[in-house]
Amino acid sequence: MKILLVQRAEIFSPNSVEKDRAILDSVAVRLMTAGHQVDIVSEEQPFAPEQYDHVMSMGRLPETLDKLRNLNAINSSLGIENCSRCKLETIMQHIGMPMPPRQGNYGYWLKRGDAAAQGKDDVQYAVTKGELECKIHEFEERGITQYTISAHVPGDLVKFYGVAGTGFFRYFYPTDDGDSKFGDERRNGEARHFPFESGTMQACVEQLAKTVGIKVYGGDCIVSENGSFCIIDFNDWPSFSRCREEAATAIASLVETM
Question: Is 7 within 8 Å of 41 (Cβ atoms)?
């Protein structure tokens, strides 16, 4: 089969351009080893997806999503659009996903809601409601009028990665290895490794992935001392840098289901 892999625009890979390319390269190696013809193209370049049997896309530009909308791509255009935080929040509320409350005693998180984060300034922490209002004003001055607000939740920050339908699911504590995109993990301090039911977490995020409409996903949870957890972030096709080779094998296997 002839397969196209679409790399996302650099604007959507803050501090992760090389990592995002690496997972695509790893997937490509596995597909080529299986006998498929594989091309990799940046979504910032012209490409003709209709010339391929299958498309696997990390792309997020509106024109990319439009181009792939009527194709059976992994991930789907609709699914990627559903990962914008405002839409995602509505979906999570509708299906009863565990989420952080809007009010709390430990500060607030303000996150850009119309698109994926393109830089550190798109995710802001505020200690007080007054500071939160100032940061909202800064967002609006930047032209960002869609955003989400949630209370900060104490506990272990856990990053998870999955490939729906393959059984692949892994989770890690970023403070264990110090690998961080923007350093926001420090707000929760060093992980204390509170025990929790990983199977419950996996079932939860797989349900979310299915509802959103994506198969290759990642995100963040906060695990509280009592073992409960809430999902604070969910996104399409992360870099899988902590488990790249395993993830690439699982992603490549999706070709059989397309």
Answer: yes
Q: Reply yes or no: is the peptide bond before residue 75 cis, omega within 30 of 0.
A: yes
Mean pLDDT of 165-185: 82
Q: Percentages helix, strand, coil for the chain, rounded to the nearest 5?
A: 40, 25, 40
Query: What are the residues whose beta carbons fall under 8 Å from the beta carbon of 67, sequence distance 6 or more?
Result: 47, 49
Task: Say which residues have a Cβ less than 8 Å from residue 45's Cβ, sequence separation at least 6.
Answer: none
pLDDT at residue 246, rounded to an integer: 97
Q: Which residues contact 257 (CB under 8 A, 6 or more apart)?
A: 165
Residues contacting 236, CB < 8 A, separation 6+? 58, 60, 75, 79, 80, 83, 214, 216, 217
**Which of 210, 216, 208, 211 shows the shortest CA–CA distance to 232?**
208
Cα–Cα dist 39/45, whole Å:
13
Averaged pLDDT score across all residues of the chain: 93
3-state secondary structure of 144: coil
Q: How far apart are CA 47 and CA 43, in angstroms?
A: 8
Provide the token pair at 256.
């059989």
- Residue 205's identity, in one-letter code, is V
Query: Does 221 have pLDDT greater than 60?
Result: yes
Residue 167 exposure: Cα atoms within 13 Å on the Cβ side: 2
